Amino acid sequence: MTLPYCVEAPVSEEFDRAYFGLPDDKFLFLMMFASGSIMERKNPDSVFEAYKRAFGTDNDNVGIVVKINEYSDEDITYVRKALSGYRNVYILSDTLTKVQVNSLIKAVDVFVSLHRAEGFGLVLAEAMLNGTPTIATNWSANTEFACSEAACMVGYKMIEIEKDIPPYKKGYHWADADVDEAAGFMERLYSDRDFL
């Protein structure tokens, strides 16, 4: 018998956009990764690329929030370079409590995860539980609770890992999300607020 993970996602109204220094007048996408974890697995590059394909630098009505855990100065530089030319980029690197993280996810318009693999996808489940529209790779354990009726599930192709990325080994396979499809979901969620 498979017992589902028990998910709770408490939030607090005190942790609103203003608390995080985020504007109220922008349509905000959020992605998260940890520098000390396996960045290649969380795949922020594909999120940045999808965002750039969906929105030009002249669209001042949208923005992207990047939450980095265990960050380094190189991580900040990496994000700024990846999104060079875009004005509404908000990098958050403070250590947050679980309630603050949940509140941040609830405060934005869309949560995005173009992961290559997930153990469970707890943050995805918490985002969905709090009613935040979610774009996610249609692969790995998150597919046990996420489906196309409840989230924007992005197609993928399986690719071979070309070098050891501990604990993943060269020759293993994981998902590579369809960036164009993800960009399409971003555009749709921005233009059709009733889509999800």
Automatic annotation (TrEMBL):
<feature type="domain" description="Glycosyl transferase family 1">
    <location>
        <begin position="15"/>
        <end position="149"/>
    </location>
</feature>
<protein>
    <recommendedName>
        <fullName>Glycosyl transferase family 1 domain-containing protein</fullName>
    </recommendedName>
</protein>
<dbReference type="GO" id="GO:0016757">
    <property type="term" value="F:glycosyltransferase activity"/>
</dbReference>
<dbReference type="Pfam" id="PF00534">
    <property type="entry name" value="Glycos_transf_1"/>
</dbReference>
<dbReference type="InterPro" id="IPR001296">
    <property type="entry name" value="Glyco_trans_1"/>
</dbReference>
